Amino acid sequence: MNPWESLRLALDGLRANRMRSFLTMLGVIIGVAAVVALVSVGTGASREVTAQVEALGSNLVMVIPASARGRDLRLEDAAAIEARVDGVLAALPNLRKKLTVRWLGRSEEVDVVGTTEDMPQVQRHPVARGRFLSHQDVLYRRQVAVLGSRTAERLFGPHDPLGREIFVAGRPFAVIGVMTTKGQGGIIVPDADDQVFIPITTAQRILGTTRVGSIYVSVAEGTDVGLVTNHIRRIFEVRFNDPDAVEVFSQEQILAAVGNVTGILTILLGSIAGISLLVGGIGIMNIMLVSVTERTREIGVRKAVGAKRRDILAQFLVESVIISLTGGLIGIGLGMLGSEAIARLGRIPSSVSVGWVLVAFGFAAAVGVFFGIYPAMKAARLDPIEALRHD
Amino acid sequence: MVRRLPPRPRGKDCVSPLIELQGVTKVYGEGRLSVAALQELDLRVWEGELVSIMGPSGSGKSTLMNILGCLDRPTRGVYLLEGRDVSALTDNELAEIRNRKVGFVFQTFNLLPRATAAENVELPLIYRGVPRAERRRMAREALEIVNMGHRLTHRPAQLSGGEQQRVAIARALAGNPRIILADEPTGNLDSRTGEEIMGLFQRVNEELGVTVVLVTHDPRRARQTRRIIRMLDGRLVGDDPVPDEEFVRAAPGGPDGKAGEPAG
Ligand SMILES: Nc1ncnc2c1ncn2[C@@H]1O[C@H](COP(=O)(O)OP(=O)(O)OP(=O)(O)O)[C@@H](O)[C@H]1O
Ligand SMILES: [Mg+2]
Predict the structure, then answer these.
(1) ipTM (interface predicted TM)
(2) Chosen from B96, B99, B135 to mutate, greatest number of chain A CBs within 10 A
(3) Is residue A177 part of a domain?
(4) Own/partner pairs for A319-322, CB < 8 Å, 24+ apart?
(5) What pTM does this model have?
(6) Is A250 inside any structural domain?
(7) Residue ranges of domains in chain B, CATH in brackets
(8) Which of A122, A138, A348, B138 would give a disulfide with A218, using CB separation of 3.0 to 4.6 Å?
């Protein structure tokens, strides 16, 4: 019997029980849709995180104190890195704290970042209007502030912030600039547009500390980041007499770590969805077994007039594969819509990956074959005489 | 009716029998529970014969038909179909023989309920790989032979029992088989309809030259064939030709009214 005949027979069989075929298919539809949607969201989230880390600035090395050791970084450390490590363009100390910022009657909790004049270059975040902090501002601990575009919006609304006086933790600051909109951040790094930048020295005085929270080191293009990282590590090893006092890592290392985590997350989501696909497959097997029993007599007639085992096998196997493939296609469509919906509702970007769609589709096909083969073999092996006697 | 085959030599003029059973035994089950449904059976059927098998319930008639039709294999003994030993063929080879050489007619018709009359008749041709258009043509031709040419697209539920059996006979004929095997083909029909069906078998046998073997419990039906085989406890206990003066021609029945006319 040629393949087209098998296909026609199988379609006839499915049409005879439309509702049942559809319900069986639903299991596969849900499974595939879940795989596609969840993996798309996972992939999208991991892309976004990667983009955010990259947006911190390229060729970046970060130095932060090891959490358990209680050693503090200081301004001199940034200066030392800048002075002593080859290939370093700038070492940017940071001190970050959420503080209350007020303008007239309005009051907001905002990330206040103490930094230096090097920030726009190191983090590739230019000023839009006015100017950024200057060397003098840092040197003389001036009470001046540059606002992120979102913060400016939140605090001033339609008003022009330039030249106005705001209060940060109760102290007056002159607004000297507003940053461009970077449009990134929010998931693992702070929203780059919702911060207030003030001189690091001023920040230390407000907070009553001499430490800095972290140092971002910007490395010249073409410099071996690994060498720079090692050099920085050695400086702190000598200063604290402790090789593990600070953690030094490059942007690539962060990206690799983030990629690992999100990759595992994506596979985990995909597997959970895959289990529902498996359940869909069991549904197919169940229905096909019922169908074989119901059609025992038909199978007997077909065999009596000359159907071979492989003809009967093909008829039933094609049926289950049609269920799973059609379910797979519909599931892919619904999954794409679903991932789009999740993306819109949850502000998480989603990214439908062709590879994963193919994997889901292939898995659906495999489910059809795997769970269809046993019922089909059962049908093919029926003894024609007994099948004809069945009622 | 169209004669599709050239006239073949009939009966014992033929050199070798169409069917030859030599010491065929069929045992169901094993050990002390085993039942010998057929015991050392010898039988020859020649091309073009019209044979009935009679015998009490459990005498092995259906078992014999299943073996003749290659639905089953003998436990022991040899079955030669057209001179070829088919007693030890594989399932696929037997399916091939059923498809090309044998046409079955069942007591319960066994049509596929969702398929139209034409589709039911096409069934053996599908498994023979006959192209669609050719299949359609052959199915229509077979349905016309059984006077069902006007019911091509009816489904079994829309047909009377007699009509269903006609479609079943058309299905058996469609593939141009050497032999038609009918196990109690009139058992589920009233006597008038049964008469029609017997007339059809007589026509098919005489005009198309197809060998027909059928099982019946009714002596009148048996006398509507040319040879009566009697079975008891899995053995042949009688094998007699029906003399011309005892032969009963089935009463006219088909819509074309030709069923009762003498052949030739
Ligand atoms: N599959 C089977 N398993 C075991 N015994 C069987 C099987 N098929 C038939 N038999 C036995 O073989 C014997 C012959 O059965 P068979 O069906 O050939 O009789 P029959 O002459 O067709 O009877 P009936 O007129 O009632 O149809 C019976 O004793 C029956 O019980
Ligand atoms: Mg019987």
Answers:
(1) 0.90
(2) B99
(3) yes
(4) A319/A10, A319/A13, A319/A14, A319/A288, A319/A291, A319/A372, A320/A284, A320/A285, A320/A288, A320/A368, A320/A369, A320/A371, A320/A372, A320/A375, A320/A376, A321/A365, A321/A368, A321/A369, A321/A372, A322/A7, A322/A10, A322/A11, A322/A14, A322/A368
(5) 0.75
(6) no
(7) 48-71+91-241 (3.40.50.300)
(8) A122
